[in-house]
Recover the amino acids of this structure.
């Protein structure tokens, strides 16, 4: 049947209103989906025209939510991006559990509930279910109604087999679907919430002092302005030291005032740190591995070193362990960069409580500047380094890192291209390239970058340290790359 023409001014007015209300950004393909949905409603016989349908949306909330569900169809399943759950299990929850207080989590944009229920399973497995409060919100009412039922088709469980012990929480019912155990369903509280609501955070809604917020694959649907506003609100609703976990495809946003970004092989996570409370968080043990603060540098100047790739794994390495991670509280002055000492894993040295700039490595200085929100200054540092040492892989890699923080993805990719040209076997550069390409929506190129990173890492001994890898071993980077490849396959391979 031939499509009925929409009254363009009316349709545009509706889309504009929906964008303002929900913060949604409509690309041309989303506009086409919306247009088809309206035509289908008209052809059902309930409405005489597009204008009549659009007018009914103003008084029929159920109809409005049906249309929202048509436009925003997030891909979700249990334990999607399992590396995120492993990060929370291994690096975040142990610190919070040690406080003895209730643990508060929020799945923002929970869709049909697979994400918050995955968190509930994780907490139950860790023996923390008696102390947990899990909130799950979404703007789509039909999705929430399905989530509360806790019954899923096999397709939603395709990530369960990859998470040890998760399958025992499901039982198959007569319809062939799977029912989630009641003890898990009871841990999650669902409610309708619009993340673009300018009144958030609002007192009385319970969504304050949250320890961990998952807001994954939500911001990709939002306008640039809504993304910045939503991330700011989410961080304001975190407890000091709390974590915001976005999806690997979600855009970077204005986060620097209230949080520290942590770049990991799985993407960027943000941690709230406020004044005195942030300083307290700095005295606690940081996450292990690639998120540890840097050890004291052996090099005494700030010049990057051009290394022969044949000596890549020699013991005398440039101190790149400090690249993304800084202690939660840092004080920067013109002459001194002071960092609180932090506990490191056995066998590692601690960063001294106060070291002069001359005593810091090039990578440490760049990392401290970036994580302190001084990206422009960090850029001038790496730019001078590139001019002095144009054949330094490290200088170009760090330049890409700074560009990423400045949200200049094309410039970051250009710098990585130079780093990879100088050292084609730099697995960390290929991994970062994949993450950047995912952010740009270039999925096939991202997959190839992750495959290269995986191949390079698997050629090395499992415990070999990866250049610029924050202490990451070859085995860890290989697993991270493989996880990213699986995530791209789960999302259908196109964006």
């Amino acid at each position: 049947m031939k499509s009925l023409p929409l009254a363009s001014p009316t349709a545009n007015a509706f889309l504009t209103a929906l964008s303002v209300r929900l913060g949604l950004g409509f690309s041309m393909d989303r506009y086409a989906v919306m247009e088809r949905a309206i035509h289908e409603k008209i052809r059902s016989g309930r409405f005489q025209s597009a204008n009549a349908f659009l007018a009914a949306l103003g008084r029929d909330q159920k109809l409005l939510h049906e249309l929202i569900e048509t436009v925003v169809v997030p891909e979700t399943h249990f334990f999607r991006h399992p590396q995120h759950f492993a990060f929370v299990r291994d690096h975040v929850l142990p610190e919070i559990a040690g406080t003895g207080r209730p643990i508060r989590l929020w799945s923002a944009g929970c869709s049909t509930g697979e994400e918050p229920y995955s968190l509930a399973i994780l907490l139950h497995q860790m023996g923390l279910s008696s102390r947990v409060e899990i909130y799950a919100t979404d703007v789509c009412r039909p999705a929430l109604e399905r989530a509360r039922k806790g019954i899923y088709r096999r397709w939603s469980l395709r990530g369960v087999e990859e998470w040890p012990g998760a399958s025992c929480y499901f039982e198959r019912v007569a319809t062939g679907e799977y029912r989630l155990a009641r003890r898990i369903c009871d841990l999650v509280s669902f409610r309708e919430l619009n993340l673009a609501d300018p009144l958030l955070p609002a007192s009385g809604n319970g969504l304050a002092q949250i320890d961990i917020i998952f807001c994954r694959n939500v911001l990709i649907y939002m306008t640039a302005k809504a993304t910045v506003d939503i991330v700011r609100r989410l961080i304001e609703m975190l407890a000091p030291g709390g974590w915001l976990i976005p999806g690997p495809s979600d855009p970077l946003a204005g986060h620097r005032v209230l949080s520290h970004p942590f770049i990991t092989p799985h993407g960027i996570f943000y941690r709230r740190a406020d004044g005195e409370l942030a300083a307290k968080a700095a005295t606690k043990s940081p996450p292990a591995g690639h998120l540890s603060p840097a050890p004291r540098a052996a090099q005494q100047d700030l010049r990057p070193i051009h290394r022969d790739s044949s000596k890549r794994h020699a013991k005398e390495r440039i101190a790149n362990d400090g690249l993304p991670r800084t202690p939660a509280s840092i004080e920067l002055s013109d002459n001194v960069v002071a960092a609180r000492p932090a506990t490191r894993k056995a066998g590692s040295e601690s960063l001294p409580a106060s070291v002069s700039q001359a005593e810091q490595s090039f990578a440490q200085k760049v990392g401290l500047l970036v994580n302190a929100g001084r990206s422009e200054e960090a850029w001038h540092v790496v730019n001078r380094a590139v001019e002095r040492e144009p054949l330094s892989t490290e200088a170009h890699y760090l330049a890409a890192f700074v560009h990423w923080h400045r949200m200049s993805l094309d410039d970051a990719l250009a710098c990585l291209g130079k780093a990879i040209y100088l050292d084609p076997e730099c697995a960390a550069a290929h991994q970062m390239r994949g993450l950047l390409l995912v952010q740009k929506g270039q999925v096939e190129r991202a997959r190839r970058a992750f495959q290269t990173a995986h191949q390079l890492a698997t050629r090395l001994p499992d415990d070999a340290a990866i250049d610029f890898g924050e202490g990451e071993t070859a085995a860890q980077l290989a697993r991270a790359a493989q996880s990213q490849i699986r995530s791209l396959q789960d999302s259908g391979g196109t964006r």
